[in-house]
Amino acid sequence: MSAPGTKRPSAMRGFVRIDFWSIIMAVSLAVIGLMLIWPIAQVLILGFINPETQSFTLDNYLKVLTHPYYLGAFKNTLIVGVGGMVGACLLGVPLAYCTARYVVKGRSLIATLAVMALVSPPFIGAYSWIVVAGNNGWLTQQMKALGITMPTIYGIHGIILVFSLKFFPFVYLMTESALRNINRSFEEAAENLGCSRLERLFKITLPLVFPAISSGAILCFVLSIADFGTPSIIGRDFRTLSTIAYNQYTSEMGGPPTMAVSISMLMIAMSMLAVLLQRHLMGKRRYTGSMTNRTAPKECKGVFGAAIHLLSYAVVALATLPIVVVIYTSFLQTSGPVFTGGFGLNSYARVINEVSDVIVNTFRFSLIATIAITVAGGLISYIIVRRETPLSGILDTVLMVPYVVPGVVMAIGFLLTFNEGSLDLMGTGTIIVLILFIRRLPYGVRATSSVLRQIKPSIEEAAISLGASPAKAFLRVTVPLMMPGIVAGAMMSFITAINELSSTLLLYTARTATMPVRIYSAVLDGEFGIAAALSTILLVSSGLCVFVVLRFSQSKEGAFV
Amino acid sequence: MAQVRIKNIKKSYGNHVALKGINLDIDSGAFFTLLGPSGCGKTTLLRAIAGFHQQDAGEIFVGEESIGHLSANKRNVGMVFQDYAVFPHLSVFDNVAFGLVQQKVPAAEIRQRVTDILATVQLDQHAERMPHQLSGGQQQRVGLARALVIRPKVLLMDEPLSNLDAKLRIDLRRDIRQVQQEFGITAIYVTHDQEEALSISDQVCVMFDGVAQQVDTPWAIYNRPENRFVASFVGANNFMAVDTTHTDSAQLLGQKFDAPAAIRNQANCVAAIRPEKVLVNRALTGNGLQVDGTLRQSMFTGRELQLLVDVAGHGVLEALTAPNETMMAVKIGDTVSVGLLAADILYYAEGETGKLLS
């Protein structure tokens, strides 16, 4: 009965085990605290301080909530947010229904085009629509020749149009996959109980996919109110919170950016409220899909079939129009800012001669940020999925924050945090890399954690019971299985990093300008040739990443939402 | 191979006590099964032995070595998982070789040992296949081979057959038992399927509510359940209230009968009889009691005939008989006689885990 006395069994060991993963946890919390919580806390606190007396005050926030200038921007933001969201649903839901329920030829082409629209930077949409339907736009000219005066594209209509066409793919992709996953028996049961086709759609089908529609819709809302490039390019005098926050910040230069941060908090509050509202509406509505008993898409002939195809292709054609316009424009011959007619490569020649540094900057910053996101995302998602502790729960929740913090706000937070002493990163490439990293980290974590959730824990336990240490089991078994998700996540991070504008616009200097920043200033200066050539480079890079994702990710288009 | 001793293992999750001090002695080379309903603690115990859970208190010995404090990868216990856990990115061969590579076994020896074990589990033709090309049963054979090839001191199996369909389950059950006996390895097996437990095991431990209710041979578990939970969980049983209020003799199903000494002074107790011991329309061949009832349901399953007989005022009894045409001819609602032999009746104290009274 005597056990060898050398090893003292201890039942208590194992609770406070300082292992590899505890260290990762500590580092993650520290990094997120410094780069996410602290900057946002600075923004929040600064709003409570009177810039003259340095004392506590509620005046700044009260001013934002009462002054007509701010209230007007608030109202405008709400309008474009709701407008973009509703527009996206009106395009996305019918398209999803068509491609999920009917045989649409070239369905994967439609999905790919929708993804391309999604990954192209939003300001490309704004500027292309100006090229098409602006004061001197191609369509405007054609119509004028026919004696028809086009309604102006500038202002609220333009913004909502661009947002709808830009963000509808979220609604489309989420709804489509939900529609495909509905267990066929639900709809058959409804029909069996006396529902007509149309009743069935409204009583069974749409309620079942409502969680998907609403998550897509809220995403559109949050992105619409956070977007800076579109309202600033196409909005003219129509100001939203993100444009006035930017303007306030740049005009408050020197003094503390009190009003900019107060506006920022209002934007965060709006996003958070929207997300919470959606969660509340959803409550416990979680419908599990069916893997096998799915509805097969129906073959449609004749007029109805043609209408289905026409609708589907019209939506994605409109959405990808900006891409076509940008690429087309980039090959037009220019002399300075003026298009001289005919085709030529001199926009590209100018890009290479004049702004090659911004191309190098963009790829360098984005690549470093992507590598950091991929490594950190993989490790953090492991902690969240596999090491369920109160701390990992906190980590999971805190990682929601960047979803609701607009880029402009995050940039202001960074400017308040990394401006002095050992944290002084002003004007460096590092601060750009860091903001790309922190803003996109949650997306990286989500991409890998969704793959990780599909890997059964027993797989790793099997490796451990066969003698592999936990770290080795992770590297030899879990990482290879996570690879498709890691690759897709990395590509997505890279796409969003190279296209980032709203945060980098406040942080860049002449040495650290990126392509989106340069495109933005080129558009404002009327240098459409350079803007188009740079945009084309961004589009082609994004397109290549999309190709890689579609090639390697099991969830295909689903990887983008 | 090795004797396994579990000493007073305790484990709680928050307020829920999963294991309330388990003590087990498992003989070397025995096939030992933990049987119980979900939530009884059987999987928690198995995972504590594997090292995936740290127990709150208690010790685990394999042979003379205490392993309770070792991390899972140092315990040298083989584990077979309910969901197979075959590495989807590795071939059958590489899956089975995984543990040997960990142990830095020379390549030539790995090849030999993997080939041998694959032959044992009848997968020698499939060594280069990927897991998704295999059926569930084949995947579980890979799981078994992978656990055995490292020559563990103990083989742990967590409901390895529950994801398979009925026919395959029986085939693989036979193979698992055969391989275990061939290797002479100590096996600890978790299942909620009582037939599986009885058929495969040398010893069965019935668990409920974090407590080992009875540890015994399959024969004893079935024929002499030590408490009421074991009697009801393993196999079917008819429980009947015993009336001991009459001073001269007890009553069962409204009949006076010679109650055994053990229950005479027991205020409340129940009698239990297996359905196959309930005699319908048959003469009693020994000491017992007989009463009339009404046939409520008759179900012919091929191998046997299940009857439900309502004994007015005393509930419905289930009876299981060999099918015969006479019995098949009895109609629902007809009166039948129900006979119970005293020797077939067991008595239990009141309560969910009331003790056997004898």
Please outline the major beta sheet of chain A.
2 strands, antiparallel
The CATH architecture of the largest domain in chain A: Orthogonal Bundle
Structural class by sheet pairing and helices of chain B: alpha+beta
Largest contact between protein chains?
A-B, 29 and 42 residues
Shape of chain B: elongated
Please give the count of helices of chain B: 10
> Order of strands across the widest beta sheet of chain B?
6-7-8-3-9-10
Uncertain runs of chain A: 1-16
Instruction: State the order of secondary-structure elements of chain A, H for helix, E for strand.
Output: HHHHHHHHHHHHHEEHHHHHHHHHH
Supply the number of structural domains of chain A. Answer: 2
Estimated radius of gyration of chain A: 25 Å
**Strand content bin of chain A:** under 5%
* DSSP strand tally of chain B: 21
CATH domain class name of the largest domain in chain B = Alpha Beta
Q: Widest sheet of chain A: strand order?
A: 1-2
What is the first-to-last residue Cα distance of chain A? 60 Å
What is the architecture of the largest domain in chain B at the second tier of CATH?
Answer: 3-Layer(aba) Sandwich
List keywords for this structure.
heterodimer; A: 561 residues; mainly alpha; MetI-like fold; two-stranded antiparallel ribbon; 2 strands; 73% helix; 2% strand; disordered N terminus; B: 358 residues; alpha+beta; Rossmann fold; OB fold (Dihydrolipoamide Acetyltransferase, E2P); 2 domains; 6-stranded mixed beta sheet; 6-stranded antiparallel beta sheet; 21 strands
Tell me what the structure shows.
The complex is a heterodimer of chains A (561) and B (358). Chain A is mostly helical. Chain A has two domains: 31-57 and 334-561, MetI-like (MetI-like fold); 67-330, MetI-like fold (Orthogonal Bundle), CATH 1.10.3720.10. Chain A is 73% helix and 2% strand. Chain A has 23 helices and two strands. A two-stranded antiparallel ribbon of chain A has the order 1-2. In chain A, a hairpin with a 2-residue loop joins strand 1 (332-335) and strand 2 (338-343). The longest helix of chain A is centred in the middle third of the chain and has 41 residues, at 346-386. Chain A is globular, with a radius of gyration of 25 Å. The model of chain A is unreliable at 1-16 (pLDDT under 50). Chain B is of the alpha+beta class and 358 residues long. Chain B folds into two domains: 4-231, P-loop containing nucleotide triphosphate hydrolases (Rossmann fold, 3-Layer(aba) Sandwich); 236-357, Beta Barrel (OB fold (Dihydrolipoamide Acetyltransferase, E2P)). Helices cover 26% and strands 33% of the residues of chain B. Chain B has ten helices and 21 strands. Chain B has helices at residues 42-50, 92-102, 107-120, 136-149, 166-183, 194-200, 218-223, 228-233, 261-264, 325-329, and strands spanning 4-13, 16-26, 31-35, 57-62, 65-66, 77-80, 154-158, 186-191, 203-208, 211-216, 238-243, 250-252, 255-257, 269-273, 279-280, 288-300, 305-310, 316-321, 335-341, 346-349, 356-357. A six-stranded mixed beta sheet of chain B has the order 6-7-8-3-9-10, sandwiched between helices. A six-stranded antiparallel beta sheet of chain B has the order 13-12-11-14-20-21. In chain B, strand 7, helix 5 (166-183) and strand 8 form a beta-alpha-beta unit. In chain B, helix 2 (92-102) packs across helix 3 and helix 2 runs parallel beside helix 4 (136-149). The longest helix of chain B has 18 residues, at 166-183. The mean pLDDT of chain B is 92. Chain A binds chain B through residues 2-4, 7-11, 13-15, 456, 458-459, 461-470, 472-473, 477, 480-481, and chain B through 50-52, 54-59, 61, 64-66, 68-69, 71-79, 81-89, 98-99, 102-103, 143, 146-147, 150, 156.
